[in-house]
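Sequence in, structure out. First:
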Amino acid sequence: MLKVDGVTKYYGDFKAVDNLSFEVKPGEIFGLLGVNGAGKTTTFRMIMGLLDITKGNITLNGKKIDYDVTDKIGFLTEERSLLTKLTVKEQCIFYGVLKGMKEEDILKRTKELLEKFEIPEYLDKKIKELSKGNQQKVQFITAILNEPELLILDEPFSGLDPFNVELFKKEIVEMSKKGSMIIFSSHRMEHVELFCKKLVVLLNGKSVLSGELKKIKEQYRKKNILIKGDIDIKEIEKIAGVVTVTKKADEYEVKIENQDIVKDVFKYVSKCDNVTKFSVEEPSLNEIFVAKVGESYEK
């Protein structure tokens, strides 16, 4: 288990991370979210042992993370960290050796992963000759060569088309099923919702939202109602507790302040003609994220 316990990090007088705590158990995919500058990258670097912690503790399976433990960790950075003059094979050997792997095991694993990501013909190609998407595949492969116990993914889908996003998703889920602990960070909230059952949202280095995604959604009072039919937007907007009404393609999205307003909207809609859909939906993680970060800025 990865345990981040009361971690604080200062750069001089600037507090980059403020008393942060969370746990990631084997097989879990955990979301670490926040706007730019929220403290995500600093947190990742402290977990990796690349930055000293000002206060608090980070342990992996009960042990402080040092060079003995980092061989069990994989890290996909948001920035490109490939040596572009090397071939894919040379790049993988370089990273694999750093993780304490034998060259014959590195080559076997590299070929397996290149097959999985449908680029086996690129083994002897130089990194600089690859497209951005294929460079991202190689960078991901180097992060998982050692079949890490802990995998940190910072914007893993950057530069990928939808088809290749699916390849990445499949591998990430497969690794979690094998017991890897995975920390996932992305600005694309729909990707986070696909994977993460638990998450933390950071703002100015401090946790402003944390817990199980399902419970977070249940506790967030604002709901959405999707309606198909002949309704009058202005009439619905008059109902107390209705926040907005938006026409989307062939249906209407009604945002309400809380669950209690559903019955009032339904009372009106039941009198309308040709209503074929009335569905109460949980808000998206994106809505909750924006609302929570916005509230925090206003305080």
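Second:
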Amino acid sequence: MLAQNGYLERAYDLRITPGVCWHGQWVPGRIERNRRIYDYELVLFSRGRGRVISADEVYYNCAGTVMILPPDWIHCTIAESEVERWCVHFDWMGDCSGHRDRSSPFVYLDAPEPFDRRQCAAPPPEELGIVLPFLRRLSTGEADRLLELLQRYFTSSSADLPGWFRRQSLLLEILALTLSEPHAGEETIQAKRGNARFFQAKGIFDARFTESELRVGTVADQLLITPNHLSKLFRQEVGMSAQDYLQSRRLELARRLLVSSQLTVAEVAHDAGFESPNYFARFFRRRLGLSPSEFRLHKTVEKQES
């Protein structure tokens, strides 16, 4: 059938190249920063529930769903429960300089480095009929088989030529299973319409949360909606108000700075975007049950004992 339609001849032009891979767990409620990638990313949710969202669409994932994300697609992932994910980056045509030359295949929108579209991967041939982003819910047997292939892929070595061929074969088998024809009765997952204003506001907060003068009202005005409506959107999408999301980003950075730097508590408060050291200390204790100094000491002792 492929040969009759001319697909096989075009498929020989594919030069699928493996990239970085990642496996890990996310805690419930984790919200990724908005990002875009240079190559393609295959993601299997092996446990839990989460959403991959963009300004236009929301893709609901659960255990056994697999996605392929395209380059230059601004998106983020939100963990609705504890999730486990397996992520493999690859390039269809073998000519993606971002995939080949950069230290990371993605760029966060709030990062200082610009995203260079010229380094993005080329799309697969149109004749293959692959619509991206791609989302499919696998049967239990298919999900188990894909997880087995991914586990083998993650532990395989390409240190010699036979190993390289085996690893390349595993990647092709992973893609073949992901893109295989749906079986009879398989449920088709439809993406739901996203909320562009929420996504835009989240991008602004992610990029500017270290500015202590940034206000929810200012962002709402910029998007031509009321602060109450903006907070309602955040509660619908991430389960917290816009103000709570803004402060959670500041708290997340403050925790990292307390552990990884020698900055004073006042300097940490300033760099994380809090209005004053006193407010920061009160807010920190209210959220974590420890003062910033106590938190730093606790983490230092914990590190020394590990």
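Remark: The mean pLDDT is 91.
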